[in-house]
Amino acid sequence: MERLASSCFILLLSVFTLSDAGSIGVNYGRVANNLPSATKVVQLLKSHGLERVKVYDTDPSVLKALSGSGIKVTVDLPNELLFAAARSKSFALTWVQRNIAACFPSTQIEGIAVGNEVFVDPNNTTLFLIPAMKNIHEALVKYNLNNAIKVSSPIALSALQNSYPSSAGSFRSELVEPVFKPLLAFLRQTGSYLMVNAYPFFAYESNSDVISLDYALFRENPGVVDSGNGLRYFSLFDAQIDAVFAALSALKYDDIKVVVTETGWPSYGDENEKGASMQNAAAYNGNLVRRILTGGGTPLRPKADLTVYMFALFNENKKNGPTSERNYGLFYPNEQKVYDIPFTVEGLKNYHDNRSPVTGDHRVTTPVNGGGGVSKSSSGNTWCVANAEVGKEKLQAALDFACGEGGADCRAIQPGAACYDPNTLAAHASFAFNSYYQKTGRAGGSCYFGAAAYVVTEPPRYGKCEFPTGY
């Protein structure tokens, strides 16, 4: 995990389809002296429907506890072993034999993270990264495990030279030739993916005067338009990930998938750690789960359903750094939830972001590095309108849901009715989406429709049709 004041990201809370959804996992860190046994941890994961876990080593007791559980596992070759793995193919072969081949397939290892945020490692291990990854992969090939287990390495967002606007995303110039080009070529050749650690909390904490809390927490907000490509972003998370996608595109690696190996929000922090609170952590992680499990990619990659690992499973009392570092946990060491959020599609059915009116954020949403924000309307009203950029097929599916299962009042857009004209899909969808949005009391996530809608602060106008503000 690395702190970075990077800017911008989107809200994805589909209410009409769960097809092609993403996947949620959790990071199981153990920098603590009060955690339950690995066996109890596996039971905890299963009881809450968590089917993916990432660990920071290959501890035999942990891998044994995961054996036969059905939980998919990503393990880590720590930074301190990069030099040995890069220098010696025999070391890499032995490491794979002892820690991977000996456990697989009863322990469903699906990925190996070679190092973690190597570019910010004070021990200067960057030069060993690519050789270590190649040697680990060659070892997997020898055990015929290379198709089942992928090799990658998590990068921090500080690996980006530019992250705002998202469309201008690029990797640090000094890393492009020696590291990123061979890394991406390796990922393409082996059918692997880029691991990325993204923390909107760090950006908000450092720039809370210009970044809206609603924008950082996946809540309804006017959004921020990318000046480079015109796409509108509704969350800081999505803007960060699209900056990575843009950086990949700049090097002509559009085909490389991205897995978010860490993201989270602390439930407690020092006095100067703006935004670290129980309520904000619950909102971020709860809305993140909903955004990922209900499908839909990012504005730049609408079909790129993401696998995301939340950080972290437990509060870890032996971690160094500010108070927040010890308070990212979803669970206390006694296995009780720090706050109540779901981790499954089933659990989402009854989930609501319990936003306190006292702590609500109504600041203008303004990008960190400039750009125009969108102010709230003086009346405080908001409306929901269609996003025609998603295409006719997705827009029609969302309209069908709103007027059908969603229970929107669509009588006004029937032939001959007051809002039938203009007879366009975008106009009719906007009316239906807004009807649903207003009927639900403008609840968080009720104006999303799988990225087919967004909130505006000025009354929409389609011909003579007036959009209601409440029911």
TrEMBL record:
Signal peptide: 1-21
Any single GO BP term: carbohydrate metabolic process
Region (Disordered): 352-374
Key words, A-Z: Cell membrane, Disulfide bond, Glycoprotein, Glycosidase, GPI-anchor, Hydrolase, Lipoprotein, Membrane, Plant defense, Signal
Assigned EC number: 3.2.1.39
Residue ranges of every copy of the X8 domain listed in the record: 382-467
One Gene Ontology term of the molecular function aspect: glucan endo-1,3-beta-D-glucosidase activity
Catalytic reaction list: Hydrolysis of (1->3)-beta-D-glucosidic linkages in (1->3)-beta-D-glucans
Location relative to the cell: Cell membrane
Membrane topology: Lipid-anchor; GPI-anchor
SUPFAM superfamilies: (Trans)glycosidases (SSF51445)
Family named by the database record: Belongs to the glycosyl hydrolase 17 family.
Protein known as: glucan endo-1,3-beta-D-glucosidase
Organism of derivation: Morella rubra (Chinese bayberry)
